[in-house]
Design a protein that fits this description.
The complex is a heterodimer of chains A (137) and B (257).
Chain A: H1 2-21, H2 34-42, H3 49-52, H4 73-76, H5 79-88, H6 122-133
Chain B: H1 2-18, H2 36-43, H3 50-61, H4 72-76, H5 79-82, E1 92-94, E2 99-101, H6 103-115, H7 125-136, H8 152-163, H9 173-177, E3 184-185, E4 188-189, E5 200-202, E6 207-209, H10 211-221, H11 232-244, E7 254-256
Parallel strand pairs in B: 5-7
Antiparallel strand pairs in B: 1-2, 3-4, 5-6
The chains are: A mainly alpha (137), B mainly alpha (257).
């Protein structure tokens, strides 16, 4: 009995630890489209990523220097880890400047046009994740 | 011992909340982050488009207006002496309103109370011209914001706004302007947000604009609800930013990208 409880506790801890660094399941249940993901990432009004990040986008003249280069992101992280970092980076680093792209709670004075809407839809998140997974070096 | 630890912990927390504030010796005007061409444009009165607004303000200064038939100059005389340093100490406390007012509000108070004219609209050509003209008289002077028991709560409110994460992007002003200044936001160098030169001529606007217009731009960038022109929250933020820039040299009318 006591052993069973310990096993359950251990299993729970592992589960929680995994959940803390990763969202393993697709938000839509489907795989994203990497080509659409690239368009989102490089569009400064949609993905906004290049405001802060740089990356392997030779055609983009203005890239940010506030965040790590996205080159090789698909090697450094698993798909689930990338998904969590896009959905809500603050779950890893509470002080992060990276916006939570798929969260609507806990925000202050959101402009009416954006209220109640995440920065990216679930489908767009999956596209971005699929694209980042192609950044292998 | 335990109590000491708690006290030390509290201090550490308090410090870390504002640890990012820029030390006085590292403070730099937006001017220092601009290209050589843009700096040259600001420095040369014949090339600085903000000077057109200053000239227009000079005309308005001596124009009689309203039921009282009085011009600004009838009460204040030569602005080159009477208005020296005035813009560099605004927002300042207004006893009648019981709160700090910015330069535009001070000008409008004179229009309403002393000239008997309706207030000028925020961002109207005339209000920008008058404030540019008054602000020009502080060029080269240090920013001096008086803080006392009356103004302290408003200063604190402005500081809280500066440090509050807001908008859909959930960023605070401080995260960019205290922590990331000098870095590139998609090709734009992030300045330290010192309001040393307002009203400014902004190349992106192709026009002269007030500090509140600039602040509202940053709120919009955060996808946050921007406060209305003249809102107390914006004046408190102006007060905090001017206090944060205390001792820095006033440079209106500045040019900014």
């Amino acid at each position: 009995m006591r052993l069973a409880a310990a096993v359950v506790a251990a299993w729970l801890t592992v589960g929680v630890a995994q959940a803390a660094d990763s969202i393993p399941q697709s938000l839509t249940g489907a795989k994203g489209d990497p080509a659409r993901g690239r368009t989102i990432v490089t569009n400064r009004h949609v993905g906004l990523c290049l405001l802060c990040h740089s990356g392997p986008f030779p055609e983009e003249r203005f890239q940010g220097t506030l965040a790590p280069d996205l080159k090789g992101a698909g090697t450094r992280w698993s798909e689930g880890q990338l998904r969590l970092r896009i959905v809500d980076s603050s779950r890893i680093n509470p002080a992060t400047i990276m916006p939570a792209y798929h969260r609507t709670e806990g925000l202050v004075r959101v402009a009416p046009a954006w209220r109640g809407k995440p920065v990216l839809t679930a489908e767009q998140i999956e596209d971005v994740v699929a694209f980042l997974m192609t950044l292998k070096d | 011992m335990r109590r000491l630890c708690v006290a030390l912990g509290a201090i550490a927390l308090a410090v870390s909340a504002f640890a990012a504030e820029i030390p006085p010796s590292d403070r730099r005007s937006g001017y220092d982050f601009m290209s050589r061409e843009t700096r040259a444009m600001q420095d040369d009165d014949t090339a600085n488009p903000g000077m057109l607004s200053v000239l227009e303000g000079g005309t308005l200064w001596t124009r009689k207006a309203g039921g009282a038939g009085k011009a600004c100059a009838d009460c204040h005389g030569d602005a080159r002496t009477s208005m020296k340093g005035v813009a560099a100490r605004h927002p300042s406390f207004d006893a009648a309103r019981g709160r700090p007012v910015n330069l535009e509000q001070r000008i409008n108070a004179c229009r309403v109370d002393r000239q008997g004219t309706p207030p000028l609209a925020y961002e109207s050509r005339e209000l920008l011209a008058l404030s540019a003209y008054v602000a020009r008289q502080s060029r080269g002077r240090p920013i001096e914001i008086a803080v006392d028991a009356r103004t302290q709560p408003f200063l604190d409110a402005g500081r809280a706004t500066f440090h509050r994460r807001q908008g859909q992007l959930n960023l605070s002003c401080s995260q960019c302007h205290d922590d990331q200044w000098g870095r590139s936001l998609a090709g734009n160098t992030i300045p330290q947000a010192h309001p040393t030169g307002y009203p400014i001529y902004r190349l992106e606007w192709q026009a002269v604009g007030s500090l509140q217009r600039r602040l509202r731009n940053c709120f919009v960038g955060l996808r946050a609800e921007a406060y209305e022109y003249g809102a107390p929250e914006l004046v408190d933020l102006e007060l905090f930013l001017m206090w944060r820039a205390r001792g820095m040299t006033f440079e209106a009318p500045a040019v900014r990208p």
